[in-house]
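Objective 1b: paired records.
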Amino acid sequence: MSPNSSSSPFNLRPSSSDDSPPIDLPLKPIPGNYGLPFFGPIKDRLDYFYHQGTESFFRTRMQKHQSTVFRTNMPPGPFIASNPNVITLLDAISFPILFDNSKVEKLNVLDGTYMPSTAFTGGYRVCAFLDPSEPNHALLKRFFFSLLATRHDKFIPLFRNCLSELFINLEDQLSDKGKVYFNTPSDNMSFNFVFRLFCDQNPLDTSLKSNGPKLFDKWLFFQLAPLITLGLPKLFNFLEDLLLHTFPLPAFLVKSSYKKLYKAFYVSMASILDEAERLGIKRDEACHNLVFMAGFNAYGGMKTLFPALIKWVGLAGEKLHCQLRDEIRTVVRAEGGVTLSALDKMSLTKSVVYEALRIEPPVPFQYGKAKEDLVVHSHDAAFEIRKGEMIFGYQPFATKDPKIFEDSEKFVGHRFVGEGEKLLKYVYWSNGRENDNSTVDNKQCPGKDLVVLLSRVMLVELFLRYDTFTIEAGTLLLGSSATFTSLTKATSI
């Protein structure tokens, strides 16, 4: 039957009840194709990594097909992923179908069209790879919520303490060298915070000493290598593609690193693991899940988010810095300190964090497999998707949809102040909408609200200490880099 047939068996339901498009949108076939078996995915992989680059890869296809919904292949393809075929969604209206667990399956799709070996996680499929329909998903996520709830009083004071050490370190290095790279000390601070939050210990006092971030970085790289390019000269493209994108890197090469991390967490979290057992979760399974949450979700997320936040705020310039410092210092004085109540009153500070999450989401990709035959809508058309087809969304295009956001490519600090708050439903960064709540029944990040809170606290601590700053921005394997070139100390508090 033709996709354009009026007798199509598909039920033309909107992909999201919050953004119902006109019911009379034309039903169109999804443009694009996958090319020849094996060779088509290889060509798309080379385009993605070497010939075009990520942004151009999607933009050229969107322009070619005159559609924000189209078919293509996503890396890594052969021989790591058995099926690289995806239906790509690049607009804010079609994208939320990926959050609807009644229509899409989230089984083993965290990293995309492939899944790293469970040897990286002690032989377990950890919660991030489970679909909400699996009983263990709700059990583990409820455990995570409980753990975060028992530590909520530590979030602000502990993070401020870690930030204080970070800024003192940055000042010292800036004084000595004239500029200071932010990412590495930020990574160290993030790991320090995460370990102290969950383990109630300074990692320096454990067997990890100062090696925790490096161990996690190695472990993360081996799992995410199929999605990475090192940016080497063209001469080495073939070799890199062969080594990183053709065959999975073996887990045994980082087994000792992971074992050190696991042992440190296991020894330090005895009471937490006792609680997991009371809930019916095996002790070692709970620990492997907590290491993954701490290393992949928390540390890995902060590793990309904090440099991006500093980059965009730094590039925004002194006018925004002046507005932020005035708001932050006024509210802190009125509230008598940095409290949840004070943070909630900082409307510009909140908006700036949301804008950073909008313009550069920490995790740019979302995947889900259609559970049923369904129809997805873009701004101007409807498309049939068959049961079993993989749906892929590139978040930075959806969250910079020019039909939703004015000056969508520009960082606008006050975008979500006042009436702008209504646009928060189009900020997708946590496997859900910013104004949705994470529950045991969905795949939204259990630490979503904590991430927003910590980002606000980082800005508060920054502008309590400094009037303004300048940075040099760059790019890394999976994210941004920031280098401070100046920090102007606060003239008044």
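Objective 1b, second protein:
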Amino acid sequence: MSFEEDDRVVLHDEHSEFDGETGTVSQTMESMFGDVTYTISFEDGQEAGVPEDDLEAADEADAEDDEE
């Protein structure tokens, strides 16, 4: 599944300080080999160069929890 800018996603990367957090896709980048990576913005910062395999679409409940 590919993501677009402003999509809400959950990051799954045990090496990231944002592991398990919900953020917003702020940028997509495609390499010359056709691989896409993402920059994800969180409340406390951002993570760049995130591969699609480390992301999942956020549930509506996740988005509501973040707004509260």
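The chain has one domain: 8-63. The mean pLDDT is 90.
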